[in-house]
Structure to design on (468 residues):
């Protein structure tokens, strides 16, 4: 229908209200014809609408969290554990997509801690560190131990019945309706070394929504005219959750701080959005105890890193993660070579040492490493290690045993130092033999011994996974 035809149709009606409604309809349709492109041919793409610009997430508690920067001891290490959705509320009807409450509450708490400037480590996804440890390119002992971690749950989501009214006079009248949703959460701050809860925050908030509108429905002559207009507004559920989690994080940190340092930051929170409850300081002794535990843990880790003699259980840590026999065999062969090479290095260091103390320490290290490599070679033979790989591993292990034995025997010829007792070393397992494999024996090395069909029990207990 052309625009002139539309004007003629409108002119037939004498009522100004009808003319107004019809003009509005014509303009709306005209706008659809010129602006919207929702209906296009199947071979063409629909133009995507452009809404507001992307912006940073800002809550009313960000300034207070930023105020804490530099006020929390940087020696205290924080992490975030599980902050789960325990409401159990889901919906898949009327366009709903599943769970009512966000499943990313832990990341929101982590962002709040980062904004507060505390020393923060990521414990949300340990898969990278575990995978790299299994690959042998990382040592988990290098990870910084945590002093405190935050955990909790979003545990209540109640739909409160609302109210409203509607009035109509001669087919014309307004309407109003209001509803509430009550949501609650609990967060706890736990001492990672003792398991003691040192701070706790329970919070709840009513999410407000309302709807207003008006409607007109009456006859003008024999023509029924209906008109309805209105609007609805409601607080964003997940943004409200972020605000609650930010406030809870602020209060948890405040319970570890002095009131004099925390009070200026609290003043930056408007009472309209929420007010942190009175500070309940558990005492400096709790924080100091956590720092002491952390320092002790670091010292133990440094001592373990300073020891060049790894335990046999550490030798098979990565083997236990293998899924197949071939993967186990590959990993245990690699570990065998590593320990044998280390034993050779320790033995050569002992033979070249000038003092009895250095000779004894290196010889003991060489003997233990050689024993571990021999036991690993035994296990590899049981799993079916043969061929060139078996020859190579056997040669290295044999060389490690010979040199370690020479270093141990050489201690009897070295001059004793006053006050230094004779070292007690452990001989390699005598039946730790290489797997049978074809090939010639390299010159300069002792001949390889045949595989014992019934290997003797290992001196070090080793637990390996079965093939899956």
């Amino acid at each position: 229908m052309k625009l002139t035809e539309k004007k003629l149709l409108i002119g037939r009606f004498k009522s100004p209200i009808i003319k107004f409604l019809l003009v509005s309809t014509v303009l709306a349709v005209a706008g659809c014809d010129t602006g919207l492109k929702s209906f296009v041919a199947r071979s063409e793409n629909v133009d995507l609408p452009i809404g507001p610009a992307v912006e940073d997430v800002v809550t009313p508690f960000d300034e207070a969290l930023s105020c804490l920067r530099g006020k929390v001891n940087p020696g205290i290490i924080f992490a975030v554990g599980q902050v789960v959705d325990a409401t159990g509320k889901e919906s898949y009807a009327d366009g709903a997509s599943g769970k009512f409450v966000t499943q990313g509450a832990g990341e929101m708490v982590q962002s709040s801690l980062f904004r507060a400037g505390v020393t923060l480590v990521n414990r949300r996804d340990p898969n990278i560190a575990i995978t790299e440890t299994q690959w042998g390119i990382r040592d988990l002992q290098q990870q910084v131990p945590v002093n405190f971690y935050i955990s909790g749950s979003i545990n209540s989501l109640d739909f409160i019945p609302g109210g409203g009214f509607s009035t109509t006079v001669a087919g014309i009248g307004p309407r109003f309706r209001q509803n509430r949703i009550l949501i609650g959460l609990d967060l706890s701050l736990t001492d990672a070394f003792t398991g003691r809860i040192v701070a706790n925050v329970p919070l709840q908030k009513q999410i407000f929504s309302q709807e207003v509108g008006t409607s007109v429905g009456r006859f003008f002559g024999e023509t029924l005219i209906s008109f309805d207009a209105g609007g609805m507004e409601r607080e964003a559920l997940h943004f409200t959750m972020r605000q609650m989690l930010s406030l809870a994080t602020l209060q948890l940190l405040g319970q570890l701080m002095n009131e004099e340092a925390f009070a200026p930051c609290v003043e930056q929170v408007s009472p309209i959005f929420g007010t942190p409850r009175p500070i309940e300081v558990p005492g400096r002794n709790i924080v100091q105890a956590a720092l002491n535990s952390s320092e002790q843990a670091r010292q133990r880790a440094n001592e373990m890193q300073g020891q060049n003699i790894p335990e046999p259980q550490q030798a098979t840590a990565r083997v236990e993660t293998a899924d197949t026999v071939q993967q186990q065999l590959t990993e245990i062969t690699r570990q065998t070579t590593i320990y044998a090479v280390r034993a050779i290095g320790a033995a050569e260091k002992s033979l070249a040492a000038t003092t009895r103390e250095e000779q004894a320490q290196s010889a003991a290290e060489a003997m233990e490493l050689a024993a571990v490599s021999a036991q690993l070679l035994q296990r590899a033979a049981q799993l079916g290690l043969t061929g060139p790989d078996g020859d190579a591993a056997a040669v290295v292990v044999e060389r490690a045993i010979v040199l370690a034995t020479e270093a141990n025997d050489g201690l009897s010829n070295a001059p004793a130092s006053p006050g230094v007792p004779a070292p007690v070393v452990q001989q390699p397992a005598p039946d730790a033999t290489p797997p049978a494999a074809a090939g010639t024996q390299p010159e300069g090395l002792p001949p390889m011994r045949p595989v014992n069909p019934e290997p003797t029990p290992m001196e070090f207990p080793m637990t390996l996974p079965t093939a899956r």
About this structure: The chain has twelve helices and eight strands. Residues 38 and 45 are 10 Å apart (CA to CA).
